[in-house]
Hints:
The chain is mostly helical. The chain contains 15 helices and 6 strands.
Amino acid sequence: MRFEAFLTHARAWLPGRTTVDARERLRAVAGAGLGLLVTALLCRWMAGPLAASVWLIAPLGASAVLVFAVPASPLAQPWSVIGGNTLSAVVGIAAANWIPDPALGAAVAVAAAIGLMFSARCLHPPGGAAALLAVLTHTTHFSSALFPFFTNSLLLVLAGVAYNSLTGRRYPHVQVMARPPASDARFSQADIDAVLARYNQVLDISRDDLQSLIQQTELESYKRRLGTLHCSDIMSRTPVSVEFGTPLQEAWALMHERRIKALPITDRTRRVVGIVTQADFFRQLDLQHHEGIAGKLRDLIRATRTVMSNKPEVVGQIMTRQVRVASADRPVVDLVPLFSEGGHHHIPIIDGEKRLAGMITQSDFVRALYRAVGPA
Length: 376
């Protein structure tokens, strides 16, 4: 047991596998080099006659790693870089002025800088180095916080915005997500916030990226566990369908008799042109007043005996024209987003000639999912 514990502890010291490819590494390397070069040239020019003094701070190298190599990190966002470096510099300068012992001053400056960055929501690891640098170089003029600390950080961030955007990386990342209304999604931002609160540690990933990673991981798990299951394997092979001119009464009676909630609508070649659901029927009714709904429905589906009519008479007049269909050879896992988050309950399945071949309902999908990923 002790040996196993020792091995577990030893593995914690080993680096993890890098998950980015060579192209992404090159993108980060080139971005850091260009960003620092632009920042250095501009700051040296701005320093002018004072070029002999410090015009580029060493912690900026660490900031460049975050801005260009991990632009999605909350620690790399503009306010974290600019606020973290600048506020930490102010703390370091204050320590250099008021604490004679550099060892004590360095410890107090770094600790106070971390506390201030937490409070100001701009935690940035190079900020600790900025505070330490101010103490060790005995920087006592508070104007140094503006130049070079603030100026260096601002220019690097601007370079990061330009370079990351041009190379296909979103920067900055939105850190305060708007809370979407309650839906059928498997988890919400509130769920993520609750878990992060229990975790109670700084997590170097934004909430939206964390949510996206969880969703993609779930989808990858479904792909692995559902294997080669296709729509043709779980669809109903004899779907009941109607045509554009099918009377409302006939379509409603068919749905009631077969206990189904949707009917695909096809043309004479069996190609899907729409779908009609119970919701489409009720959408034609005045539901502001719930009294007499049954009577209103009877009046809607009853055929008008006159030549002219002021209400729909056939399903083609109330159908949903934009229909999401899937081919019979499509992997079932591709339907996960449609059923779980897209709000779909019925998906017509078409064959190679785009003719109606079957129907998959939400119940069919859940049943197949349970059989594939349920208890062994």
